[in-house]
Design goal:
Distance between the termini: 24 Å
CATH class: Alpha Beta
CATH architecture: 3-Layer(aba) Sandwich
Structural class: alpha+beta
Number of helices: 4
Radius of gyration: 14 Å
Bound molecules: tetrahydrodeoxyuridine
Strand content: 25-35%
Helix content: 25-40%
Length: 142
Amino acid sequence: MTSFDAAALAQAAIDARQQAYVPYSHFAVGAALLAEDGRVFTGCNVENAAYSVTNCAERTALFKAVSEGARTFRALAVAGAPQDTDPAGHLPACPPCGVCRQALFEFTGPQLPVVLALGGGAYETHTLGELLPHAFGPNDLL
Ligand code: THU
């Protein structure tokens, strides 16, 4: 894992959150995924009247990245809160859901730093392995 600017990645997630399409939950999430080559792929949650079709911000970012050829990643940042929350103030930590943890693990393994934006320039960082211990991944199929 190479170094990265966690505060800048958290801000990119906060910015991406503005695009969230959330007419049902009104809970807006943004994600920013830093690829090894330096590209940053952002995503937001995209909801649907058929609720289960909803795509989380993290998977939007991941699938954008993979579809554009990125396969290895340095870090992920996530920012999520009720839609009317001002990100200039405090944001609650918004950890990725279980489905997104599994989707990310496929490409990153357990070392990926996951930066949770807390607003006002603050953040906390966990590894994906902390969030998804004893994960099932590609090596388990060998
Ligand atoms: N959501 C995300 O986009 N990422 C998360 O980490 C947690 C949940 C979305 C899904 C749904 O649109 C809304 O937040 C409420 O669950």
